[in-house]
Amino acid sequence: EALREAGYATHIVGKWHVGHARREYLPTEQGFDHHYGLYLMSVDYFTHANGGGLDWHRDARPVKEKGYATDLLAAEAVRIIREHPADKPLFLYVPFSAPHSPLQATQEYVARYRSIEDESRRIYAAMVTCLDAGVGRIVRAIEERGFERNTLIVFCSDNGASLSYGGSNAMLSGRKGSTFEGGVRAPAIVVWPGQLEAGRRITEPIHVIDWYPTLVNLAGGSLDQPRPLDGVDLWPLLSQKTPLPPRDLILKATRRGGTILRGEWKLMVTSGNDAGRLFNLEDDPFEQRDVREAHADLAAELRAALVPYQRAVVGNPQSGKRPARFETPAVWGADHGYERKKTIPPRRERKHGKDD
């Protein structure tokens, strides 16, 4: 919304996953001029179905198309870049669903990894390689239009790997869904030829909430809003190597616990009466040694700093009607070619298929 107010054309190609049950929750009602892709966290990569219905949409209308999801999303992003007027600023957000489950890839990519014995790992590698190829097509489209020196590209992940689906976090503890480093520590790549120094490595932790003020400020937009911003503008750090001001990063906050990061110190609290586990990530990046007893005062200080965020957590609304399982919302459209079902059917884990 802020970027559209700043004069940008706004496009999302990929998964939305922040509201789908009412029309006002959909991306085209939340500041995007155009959306192509899915509403949920993932779909069958070949049928594009989830939740008993087709979860594949173009501007709030269901569409039935053939093709592997990652390839379709890359092709749509390339189309937008090729057709976009050169004199109109563009914000293109491409949240691929890959390599999220279900583990499915085309034979073309699976065949490249015959040497990997573990089937899940082999298919996961194929999915990541297909994703990489899609990103490459998008970058080439930017270069073909001559936009590269006027375009900021940010490539990042939303979490660490799930170990149940062929992923790996190497030596890091934890996995997707946890606040150990294996769940929350993910690399990012930022590219802008002529504006950012190539090959520089930044080790200072940043948070996904920082991209909002960073991008809006770069676009000349307004950050005026009734509530204070949680994120900070990263541009001085990225462009001038200016350190970020000291701050606490909240990695999780629930009524029972949470995780707070302050510099190299991380405190993880799992219950209301829990004093927490304290790790020094500089000395112990794999989180093998709880040093809370040796630094009790710091642990107590971090525990107290987490409390206001816990108190601000809002509970789930209790409407009295809560379906036992997911139901395909009517707003998705009835004429989608799938029989509407009241429960999720057993997922058919097609791990690879034809290039259809």
Question: CATH homologous superfamily of the largest domain, by name?
Answer: Alkaline Phosphatase, subunit A
CATH structural fold name of the largest domain: Alkaline Phosphatase, subunit A
Amino- and carboxy-terminal Cα gap: 36 Å
Task: State the name of the first-level CATH class of the largest domain.
Answer: Alpha Beta
Strand content: 15-25%
What are the low-pLDDT stretches, counting only 5+ consecutive residues below 50? 335-350, 352-356
Brief summary of the model shown:
The protein is α+β, with helices and mostly antiparallel strands.
How would you describe this structure to a colleague?
Strand 11 and strand 12 form a beta hairpin. The longest helix is centred in the middle third of the chain and has 26 residues. Helix 2 runs parallel beside helix 4. It contains 8 helices and 15 strands. The protein has a 5-stranded mixed sheet with strand order 6-5-2-1-7, covered by helices on one side. It is globular and about 60 Å long. The C terminus is likely disordered. The chain has 2 domains: 280 residues, Alkaline Phosphatase, subunit A, CATH 3.40.720; 58 residues, Arylsulfatase, C-terminal domain (2-Layer Sandwich), CATH 3.30.1120.10. The chain starts with a helix and ends with a strand. By secondary structure, the protein is α+β, with helices and mostly antiparallel strands.
